[in-house]
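Appendix B, record 7
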Amino acid sequence: MQTANLYLKKKCERRLHGGHLWVYSNEIDTQKSPLNGFSAGQEVLIKDYAGKTMGKGYINPHSLITARLLSYDVDTIFDTDFFSKRLQEALALRERLYTKPYYRLVYGESDRLPGLIVDRFADTLVVQINTAGMEQKLTIITEALLQVIKPKRILLRNDSSMRQLEGLPVAVNFIYGEPVAEVQLEENGVSFNALIQEGQKTGWFYDHRANRARLKDYVQNKQVLDVFSYLGGWGIQAAVLGAETVSCLDSSEKAINQIKRNAELNGVSNKVITYCQDAFDGLNALLKAGKSYDVIILDPPAFIKRKKDLTEGQLAYRRINELALKLLKYDGILFTASCSMHLATPELVDILRRCARKLNRSVQILEQGHQAPDHPIHPAIAETDYLKLLIARVL
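Structure tokens (predicted):
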């Protein structure tokens, strides 16, 4: 496909000069480069208003984020060699960080591969392609992954909401190797079985790895409640680290069954109690039953996915944190997290403060957590910095 020129409006090159990789539809000079002249995924040379070439990338004329920069070198050819070098660069970081092959291998823009996510489960790779430009390169990306990682199998989890925004079809299928329903992984010395075809996102959330490791200082001989448990990433690790009991609450029966299997896998079934219920309903039921806990973990899904959800989402964070505070014993520990990019850490702190004051309780923030380093932050792209955690002592 021929490389076309994409011209920006006057002064709209400033963000790219600052290191950003995206071009929005309202930044394009549609007189010089009409959007109906491009096809989804087409390679483009991105030029400023004066005609100076800023770099090379790809375009989707139907998307709000219309173009993404892949290289500042205009002579770059986006072939197997290009993707292999970028993958080797990403792999070098992960091998520096981790001794075992369980991690996010590629984190989109932060690894200079916008639109591509790859999670590694030893010899199994789970790939998400979220843009039309990367969709066009699927065969080349697959060749590069086979060359650099040499996996036994590659699963495409092309069922994200971002694909719908890009006008791409949704599908889940193996593109290499023998299909499997689940894989085993290891995190902080604890083993888990993850459902890669039917589980959430890629089947596991590596981003909380470092935060979950902090449990060791807080759960010894304690009664722990893990809310939004998913596969037990928090709860099973708490049990292995010496918690007296761990109650796991999740609305998915499939997730609850997997928690039981993961508890058995680690020899802690005698410590783990499960509740299959909506989180809010479940917490209220525990309150009515007179339950209380030494440590409570709140790791909810993103209550604020878009800016327009801000008010409703903040209310949900207040409700869930207030319920947790009611269930905490004196001198209890609360792990409260948010993966909503639109909720900044100071706002989460304020939500916790307001909930505590409403219940006439005092809070000390002991630690603040972040996404693990296999999810590096691109300093020019705020969207890559999304995960936050507060570890608080409640009096």
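Remarks on this record: The chain is about 30% helix and 30% strand. The chain has a mean pLDDT of 96.
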